Amino acid sequence: MFDKLFSTLKGDKAETQDTVSAGEQNRVAFTALLVEAARADEIYTDKEKGLIAKLVKQQFGIDDAEALSLRERAEEAQAEANDLYRFSSTVKNGLTAEEKIQLVEGMWQIILSDDARDPYEDMIVRRLCGLIYMSDQEAQEARRRVEQRQS
Predict the structure, then answer these.
(1) Quick one: which of 8, 129, 133, 141 has the most CB atoms within 10 Å?
(2) Residue 133: how many CB atoms within 10 A of its CB?
(3) What is the radius of gyration, based on Cα positions, of the chain?
(4) Distance between CA 53 and CA 21 in Å, rounded?
(5) Is 54 a member of any domain?
(6) Amino acid 114: pLDDT
């Protein structure tokens, strides 16, 4: 018990993650995957940051300050991650089918927001869909819905 308390006070990330709620882990994973989509082309713009904040505000019903804090935590988590698995496993097990679709639509919104598609961006979404067991058809429909809204 004291070891866990001391680890938390020292800032040991492995220990503090145990104390983070599943809901918060889902939020961070969702947002980190949006950040991953934005950073996939190696150009992370203020427009993309604003779009991420807008998407998480809508998704989670939070205010501007909470959205900014969540995005910053997700940016840090994404920068520390070696691959998508850390976030995809959280999403796969923690989100509903509808929330997964909303995530993929959000990723497409970010990817298509700069009017330039990078092959790596497409690969990120395809890979994530495979990891969260979303069918190709569902993923293509999500992209089409976003394209229709943006045109």
Answers:
(1) 129
(2) 11
(3) 16
(4) 21
(5) yes
(6) 85
Q: What is the 3-state secondary structure (H, E, C) of the chain?
A: CHHHHHHHHHCCHHHHHHHCCHHHHHHHHHHHHHHHHHHCCCCCCHHHHHHHHHHHHHHHCCCHHHHHHHHHHHHHHHHHCCCCHHHHHHHHHHCCHHHHHHHHHHHHHHHHCCCCCCHHHHHHHHHHHHHCCCCHHHHHHHHHHHHHHHC
Report the pLDDT value the prediction gives residue 7, as an integer from 0 to 100: 44
Neighbour-count burial of 151, counting CB atoms closer than 10 A to its CB (0-12 exposed, 13-18 middle, 19+ buried): exposed
Amino acid identity, residue 22? A
Mean pLDDT value across residues 129-143: 94
Cα-to-chain-centroid distance, residue 98 = 15
Q: How many domains does the chain have?
A: 1
Query: Is 81:64 a contact under the CB 8 Å cutoff?
Result: no
Angstrom distance (rounded) from CA 145 to CA 108: 9
Structural domain including 129 reads: 21-150
Does the pTM of the predicted model rise above 0.70? yes
